[in-house]
Amino acid sequence: MKKRICITALLLLNLYLALGQTDYTPSPENLENRAWFQDAKFGLFIHWGVYTTLGDGEWVMQQQKIKTDRYELLPDFFNPQQFNAKAWVKLAKAAGMKYITITTKHHDGFAMYDSKFSDYNIVDDTPYGKDIFRLLEEACKKEGIKLFAYYSQLDWHHPDYYPRGKTGQDLGRPESGNWQDYIRYQNAQIKELAENYDIAGFWFDGYWDQNDLKKAGKPYEDFDLEATYKIIHGVNSGLLIGNNHHLAPIAGEDFQMFEKDLPGKNTAGFSEGSQIGNLPLETCETINHSWGFNLQDGNHKSFSELIQYLIKAAGNNANFLLNVGPMPNGKIQQEHQDLLMQMGSWLQENGESIYDTRGGMFQGADYVSTEKNQTTYLHVLNTDLNTLSIPFAKKRIKTLSWFDDGKPVKYKIKKNVLTIYLNEAHRDAVDTIIKLTLK
Ligand code: FHN
């Protein structure tokens, strides 16, 4: 009997967590900011830290098992003389991006902003000595781009991140520590980011480091997310909070992100527990294969792959947060700049079918649709098709026209199937867009 009660309690707890949002009521300002977020559609993710100097990605400390006392030599090599915050923000804007999310602290524990709670930061501990987060904040304000702070709750450097989670073992830290002291430290940094910088919200990561132990039935520590969220919303109720915990939304969160997958999919393995909630959605992906700068990674995605991912994200009612890993000198690789500019040109011509839209009624192997103002934008992503047949239950079409020149599209409806004739003249190598309105 006792076992059954425990199972019931666990099921109820999971139901409560799955529903999330039970004791959090977003403020009117927060709801307004969520609507802005959903309209924005496209953002720039930036992974940049002292790990960049090694050119082997942002997990180098863990992967090369670099002990903390050796890793602490790295900040002295970080001196990005060619960093230009204005240039980064202008590039994001030219790419058609509406916001930037940058790592203020990644798992290595090094703060890329002027933290008052640790000298292990870019101002106090590098020859560069400038607060790049402040410089980006100022440049974003000038260009009308919003700024989000990525913050890793997982910390491979702080001695009080103890007991360790799934990662960060054998890095030379004492086998002791006070978890609540770490939580107090983490919350103090988060609060100073919320209070001292004009940001639009937080992108949390690293929760899974402890939660994966919990899922394996092993001892784990709890981050007490709702307490942290209450601190943030206590500073500014309008701040948008998202957490890459790979779970369904938790009370206090304002958007839900998916890593390397469209909402509801799990091809990359990060979204096993991420049932789609009722929050604004975002998917994040790398422009090559790495988040942080990796000298060996020349696997840049094609323009077509990237723009089609943006279109599919919008068709799935989600934003696309596209990541670059700037180099140690502060420059974004030319190939990545070129790809971002190409995406910006495409959006200048076709942005009407992406910005301010929501996911549409059509979705299939070769097509998705977006919707706004009673108009459906059908995006056909396969250039080999002469006709496209779509299940179409008894709706009455008012207009069906080519997006590029407004001319009527040839179609027929038979037995609840809409067949569209994709003539050669209008077929586009990346995305053939058709506008549909209903009577
Ligand atoms: O471990 C991190 C990784 O370095 C990167 O920051 C990604 C971005 O979504 N998040 C974690 C992996 O899930």
Automatic annotation (TrEMBL):
<comment type="function">
    <text>Alpha-L-fucosidase is responsible for hydrolyzing the alpha-1,6-linked fucose joined to the reducing-end N-acetylglucosamine of the carbohydrate moieties of glycoproteins.</text>
</comment>
<feature type="domain" description="Glycoside hydrolase family 29 N-terminal">
    <location>
        <begin position="19"/>
        <end position="352"/>
    </location>
</feature>
<dbReference type="InterPro" id="IPR057739">
    <property type="entry name" value="Glyco_hydro_29_N"/>
</dbReference>
<dbReference type="Pfam" id="PF01120">
    <property type="entry name" value="Alpha_L_fucos"/>
</dbReference>
<keyword id="KW-0732">Signal</keyword>
<feature type="site" description="May be important for catalysis">
    <location>
        <position position="284"/>
    </location>
</feature>
<feature type="signal peptide">
    <location>
        <begin position="1"/>
        <end position="20"/>
    </location>
</feature>
<dbReference type="GO" id="GO:0006004">
    <property type="term" value="P:fucose metabolic process"/>
</dbReference>
<dbReference type="InterPro" id="IPR016286">
    <property type="entry name" value="FUC_metazoa-typ"/>
</dbReference>
<protein>
    <recommendedName>
        <fullName>alpha-L-fucosidase</fullName>
        <ecNumber>3.2.1.51</ecNumber>
    </recommendedName>
</protein>
<dbReference type="GO" id="GO:0004560">
    <property type="term" value="F:alpha-L-fucosidase activity"/>
</dbReference>
<dbReference type="GO" id="GO:0016139">
    <property type="term" value="P:glycoside catabolic process"/>
</dbReference>
<comment type="similarity">
    <text>Belongs to the glycosyl hydrolase 29 family.</text>
</comment>
<dbReference type="InterPro" id="IPR017853">
    <property type="entry name" value="GH"/>
</dbReference>
<keyword id="KW-0378">Hydrolase</keyword>
<dbReference type="GO" id="GO:0005764">
    <property type="term" value="C:lysosome"/>
</dbReference>
<dbReference type="InterPro" id="IPR000933">
    <property type="entry name" value="Glyco_hydro_29"/>
</dbReference>
<keyword id="KW-0326">Glycosidase</keyword>
